[in-house]
Amino acid sequence: MAEQTQNKRGERVILILTPLFLLLLTAGILILFYVLAPIHRLQNYLNIAFMDNLKTTAQTDGLNIIEQEISKDNAADETFEEGEIKYPTFGEQYAMLEIESVGIYVGVYYGVNAELLERGACHSTQSAVIGENPGNTVIDAHVTTYFAELKNVQVGDQITLYTNYGKFIYEVTEQIEFDKTDKRYLAVPKDAEYLTLYTCKPQVLGSPDQRIGVRCVPVEKHFYTQSSQEGGAQ
Length: 234
Fold this sequence. Notes:
Blueprint: H1 2-36, H2 39-42, E1 93-99, E2 104-110, H3 114-119, E3 121-123, E4 135-140, E5 158-162, E6 166-179, E7 193-200, E8 210-223, H4 228-233
Parallel strand pairs: 2-3, 4-7
Antiparallel strand pairs: 1-2, 1-5, 3-4, 5-6, 6-8, 7-8
């Protein structure tokens, strides 16, 4: 009788301790995953450590995402070195970015937040719109997705941005690496025109503080429509 009572007590202890053990095991696995995995993957793209003044980290209430059909082939008979820019609205996909040398071809959205970063590359609204001169067009994307191959882009490679108002070709002049607090590559120049692409530098532990990317200069501009001032002058 005493042996049966002792067995029942043992079974009760097992029933009580088993869920507790499983809970502790699960918590340990989650903690281990948190320590070893990059922070931007754990947070499902909500808190990517890009420049704080160039992005929002939370979802935008009522964000109107506009998808555009942007063709690589221009149907116009004539193009112009200077022309009319069609300014996008926040959340609008207004360009396609192509880097043939590394196989990157991705949509570019105007504005930076978690929802847009999940869809493609993002253009900072504090930088120049594609085709503006002078200006610095700043575009970023996730190192785990759309800009995974950005690290392999070399000096001399060409980058093409297609929009509904023109086609713009740039040449890479510099590979860049900088700290997240360093704004020298993201600043707006007074008398020059650049394209700057960047992403987080991959690392195993902790939040990535370093950025990698490329600085480019324009080599060809093909506007589909002249500006009204230029058209009236002729």
